[in-house]
From TrEMBL:
It comes from the Bacteria. Gene3D superfamilies: 3.30.70.100. This is Cation transporter. PROSITE patterns: HMA_2, PROKAR_LIPOPROTEIN.
């Protein structure tokens, strides 16, 4: 009986490690799917800044908004500065606009937390 418990425990541990390894492979493949933006492409893109109200922390709020913006098609770079409450975004104007980026920001966390107070192209 004791051996059966030990074998069961070893099997559970082995399956946990195997499933974790499988997950990390899937994540790595998913991360490489996003097309890299070259410095030349970034130079051709428009830049806009957004003043955001409602952020309460750097890691949760600012990072969530930054990641959501960076995942949008046509966005080459997104940086959200929690201290100044400003998001700076480089984007392809054929694929994104100030309005669509504003909707993306305000839609993070269910749409109730963040509000764009001001947006402007630079």
């Amino acid at each position: 009986m004791k051996n059966l418990k030990n074998i069961g425990l070893a099997l559970v541990i082995a399956l946990s490690f195997a499933s974790c390894k499988q997950e990390s492979k899937e994540v790595a493949v998913e991360e490489t799917k996003k097309e890299a933006v070259s410095e030349a492409d970034l130079a051709k893109m428009q830049t806009a800044s957004f003043t955001i109200d409602g952020m309460t922390c750097a890691m949760g709020c600012a990072k969530s908004i930054e990641n959501k913006l960076a995942d949008q098609e046509g966005v080459g770079q997104a940086v959200v500065d929690f201290e100044t409450k400003i998001a700076t975004v480089k984007f392809d104007s054929e694929k994104q606009s100030l309005e669509s980026l504003t909707k993306t920001i305000e839609g993070v966390a269910g749409g109730d937390s963040y509000k764009v107070k001001e947006s402007k192209k630079m």
